[in-house]
Hints:
Blueprint: H1 2-33, H2 38-69, E1 77-80, H3 81-98, E2 101-107, E3 114-117, H4 119-136, E4 141-150, E5 153-160, H5 192-202, E6 206-211, E7 216-223
Parallel strand pairs: 2-4
Antiparallel strand pairs: 1-3, 4-5, 5-7, 6-7
Helix pairs in contact: 1-2, 2-5, 3-4, 4-5
This protein binds adenosine-5'-diphosphate (ADP) and magnesium ion.
Magnesium ion binds at residues 128, 131-132, 188, 192.
Amino acid sequence: LVASIRQVSSDIAHDLKTPIQRVAVVLDQVMNKTTLTEGQEELLSKAIGETERIVQTFQSLLQLAQIEGGAVRDRLHSVDLAEISRDIVDFLEVEAEERGFALSLRIQPDAATCVRGDRHLLSQLIGNLVQNALTHVPQGGPVVVGVTRTGGETILTVSDNGPGIPESERSKVLQRLYRLDQSRTTEGNGLGLSLVSAISDLHGARLTLEDNKPGLTVRIAFPATEPA
Ligand SMILES: Nc1ncnc2c1ncn2[C@@H]1O[C@H](COP(=O)(O)OP(=O)(O)O)[C@@H](O)[C@H]1O
Ligand SMILES: [Mg+2]
């Protein structure tokens, strides 16, 4: 049943993505090629925003189906998790600061931090986790991306000091489209952690959600490989 629901959701996403994108193009034309009152323009930009969010959701559902399909597995090669983390932290640092967060990186010195992976998907995984901290921690604060090596595994952690996720909800938030009640009004579609979980599975890694006392620590343990 779960498999068939998944299939249906990706079929729907696939079939509806193109028509929705056409609607977006038409709305854009109305916005740019006609004269509108301020009130009309305001309503129209709401509609444009909504269609963008729908397209984004469909894109994430399709990407999820693609990752779960496993075809990417043949593309994995040795990549340095520390280097990927550094790049994504550099990229998100300014946005984090603007939103009241101190984003930092903690890399264990002299540790072997290479894993068999896909650079693009791993950047997305780390990016989703950092974005979650920026979105779901209302008061700002420190966000730490860590890379360490223990017992032959390369461990990636992303930690914040926010409200965390209650233990009873931890497996549910990994399901697609599931969001905590407290997050109903924040931006998002409930697919970020589903993607993180799918990417983690693709890499043969183990994902756990832990209590950072206070806050959330997402911990992902990758089977280690030697650098290529
Ligand atoms: N760092 C975090 N702190 C507290 N709650 C979180 C955090 N990350 C995720 N969550 C909760 O898990 C839910 C699912 O996360 P996600 O799949 O990324 O969806 P989205 O961010 O689009 O809501 C979020 O809606 C939020 O309720
Ligand atoms: Mg998210």
